[in-house]
Amino acid sequence: MSRLALQTAVRSLWLLRNHEKAWQPSAMISAAQTSSSARWTHSKPRELKNRIRKAEKLAEPRTIDVAEDFRSHNYKEEDLRPQGGMIEKIVAEHKERGTIFLIPGKDSPARESVTQALVRLVSIGVRPEFLLDGCVQKAELFRVLTTHGESSLKIINTLVSIGNLTYEDSLRILSEFSEELLACSNNGIRERIEAIVASGISTSRELSHALRKCPALLFAREPAEMRGLAEGIGGFFSRRQASNMIARCPQILLKNIEEVEEKYDYVFYQMGAEGEELSECGDRWIDGMDLQEMQTRHVFLVLTGKYSQPDPKRPQLKMENPKLKKILNTSDEQFAVNVAGVTMEEYTVFKAMRLRQLEVEKKERTYERIKPSKRKAYERRQKERPELLEHVFDVARDSSL
């Protein structure tokens, strides 16, 4: 199917529906607030590719349910003493669930090394109810605290003192990623936290939020790689905008730099959006939307008359386009109904038609890729481009969509 046929079909569909109503803004999608209950949310060498792929998977939002309500448990006083019956209580609970732990007896000299981490955590203020329930709910947490007590305490102290996390949140992270954190070592975790701060996280609150939302930052990528990606983002954004984006979506530091560059390259040069708009968008364009879907939404809005390309010769004129976050940070149904003003069925038909067109064309990229260093030259070319009369159609320009 030719491009002209695709455009004609979409425009005809639009005229048949005779929609003259104004665009109705969709309901704002507020990001879930991260609380102390911990709502958690990911051509290079093969080893790096594997690390990035694993990090992206771990960067997905996730909730760890550990000791949400202490009052629902009727623990005996003896069960809350690490040197008393806490160990026996945890072992008994896991035995009922089919997991067997062998621990030294109360009179054994090895008993002290097993209980060392638990005793220390209670002594510095961690509630014994939380610690007991956490070890019961997460067998891995109990295992790592009893077999790698000293290393675990060092990691927890680093997360608290440098990462500005609470002891409870540090234990939650340790319960999920104990193997990765132990393999990374305490010094490696410290270096990664320093790299996150150097990437633009300026306050302790932003840092703790970033670590709770994306714990994989602590181990899934080398510090130098995170710093390099932050520098790449700085090529398109101001320092404030880049810091704002990294604070909102810390998982961007785990992404493939080429994929991220392609996305904001398209937003800047093909959609004509500003860096401020993109930095205020949510994280769906980073995690849940590939470049092809981004292009499809943009092209659909242009063809249906909902999006006008900014005039490079008169950049001071602001177009009445939908907000970028409405385009990129919404579901397909929200985008179709509230932004494009069509039904979900119509947008689905268009997506299928466009996919078929792209398969026929088999083009790697349907628009010109602009590097940050070439930005001024690109803008100069756009301004020097001759203005066409109303009855003249520039096929080359139209095909760039």
Explain what the structure shows.
The protein has a domain at 64-184. The protein contains 22 helices and two strands. The chain has helices spanning 3-17, 46-58, 86-96, 111-123, 128-137, 139-147, 149-161, 167-176, 178-184, 186-198, 204-213, 223-233, 239-248, 257-269, 275-279, 284-287, 291-303, 324-328, 332-340, 344-361, 375-384, 395-398, and strands at residues 39-40, 62-63. Strands 1-2 form a two-stranded antiparallel sheet. The relative contact order is 0.10.
Overall geometry comes to elongated
Distance between the termini: 15 Å
Poorly predicted sequence stretches spanning 5 or more consecutive residues: 8-45, 58-72, 395-401
Which percent range fits the helix content? 55-70%
Beta-strand content bin: under 5%
Tally of separate helices: 22
**Major β-sheet profile:** 2 strands, antiparallel
Work out the radius of gyration: 27 Å
Family: Belongs to the mTERF family.
Keywords: Transit peptide
InterPro entries: MTERF, MTERF_sf
GO molecular function: nucleic acid binding
Précis, in short:
This protein is mostly helical. The protein has 22 helices and 2 strands. It has helices at 3-17, 46-58, 86-96, 111-123, 128-137, 139-147, 149-161, 167-176, 178-184, 186-198, 204-213, 223-233, 239-248, 257-269, 275-279, 284-287, 291-303, 324-328, 332-340, 344-361, 375-384, 395-398, and strands spanning 39-40, 62-63.
